[in-house]
Amino acid sequence: MNVRRSAAVLAAVAVVGAATPAAADPSPSPSQAFPSALYGGKDPKFDGVWRQSLALLAQDTVGVKPAAKSVEWLVRQQCADGGFASYRADPTTACDARTMLDTNATAAAVQALSALGGHDAVTGKAVTWLKSVQNKDGGWGYSPGGASDTNSTSVVIGALTTAGEKPEQVEKDGKSPYDALLKLALGCAGDGAGAFAFQPDKKGKPAANADATAAGVLGALGQGMVVKPAEKAEATETTGATRSETCQDKKTPEQAAANGAAYLTKALAEDDHLSSALAGADPQPDYGNTADAVVALAARGDTGQAQKSLSWLEKNSSTWAAQNGPAAYAQLVFAAHATGTNPRDFGGADLVKQLNATGPAPQTAGKARAAEEKSDSESGPFGVWWYVGVCLVAGVGIGFLFSGRRNRQQL
């Protein structure tokens, strides 16, 4: 999923995370033109709810209690029917037919608010809305009624799981979300074997897409943006490609996830990162999708390549994260968490501090930091920092892994 909605990403899509020149400082505090409770200083029109949700979820993941007003801002973005738009400048105005609701923003909000706890009424209404806009093939598109895509379907699966639902039992016309994902998974022959497509092309043919594959692996495993830290690989057998190097018939979601993980490992193997390119431009490192791929591989226990790509991100992602702000920092936190890496010592940078600096000061940053430092001193560089106050989301990238949230555009 990529800061995934990844610009978030998951959505509808585009190239996420291409490199852009920027200062390596954290994003500035939100502009006074935007709500003071909002994380990030850029126009929130397309990603306000997405980036707020990822920021709050990442803080919760590392044991930091978000500012109460930031959580309340997210809650107030919900429409009466349970759905969330990408951003509502005036939440006191009722949503109407012109309000463009967004399955990805809604699913991200569910994951964040479920992890934080105490918002069952909000998440319950959101889940009911998501079920009401499920497509007949079992999946979801970015907007209600839009054709199902891998990223949207996967982020909704993560939301359902986090909210205590069983995705396989959420059906429309007898089809579950997993049926939709299997339909979007490529077979084992030809280019892109084992990958997931975002959507079929105009001719109805699916084409391999790395961003969609990272999201699809998480979705097929029934997981969200935050996954339980994987044990670090020790044996050489587990540090190569994946535990399932040979693509096999995608009869089950688990096998489709294995095939997708093998595809990602192969794509990452050459230089440990994914790349993307706009039309007519040279390929550039895709930091957001790489982070999502790390989470997806770690979710399967494929820690070898996940660790290598995480190390690449530690060395190369600071400028990208500073440019893209809270969602990007959150995405890196998810990748670090999934691999058992301390996000407060991410290539020498403190991702948590940088994330916190993009919005209102959290309630317990100081206490969480003190507890974490004590844990680190007792456990060593690869200690159990993530046990301190961690709230796991059952199942993000990635997506969720999902890069600053992308506007809806073509892949």
Automatic annotation (TrEMBL):
Keyword Transmembrane helix carried by entry: yes
GO MF term set: catalytic activity
SUPFAM superfamilies per UniProt: Terpenoid cyclases/Protein prenyltransferases (SSF48239)
Transmembrane segments: 384-402
Cited Gene3D superfamilies: 1.50.10.20
Pfam entry (one): Prenyltrans
InterPro entries xrefs: Prenyltrans, Terpenoid_cyclase/PrenylTrfase
Leader peptide range in chain numbering: 1-24
Ranges of residues in domain Prenyltransferase alpha-alpha toroid: 53-164
Location of region: Disordered: 230-253, 357-379
Keywords assigned by UniProt, alphabetized: Membrane, Repeat, Signal, Transmembrane, Transmembrane helix
Coiled coil: none
Biased amino acid composition, Low complexity: 236-245
Protein name, as recorded: Prenyltransferase alpha-alpha toroid domain-containing protein
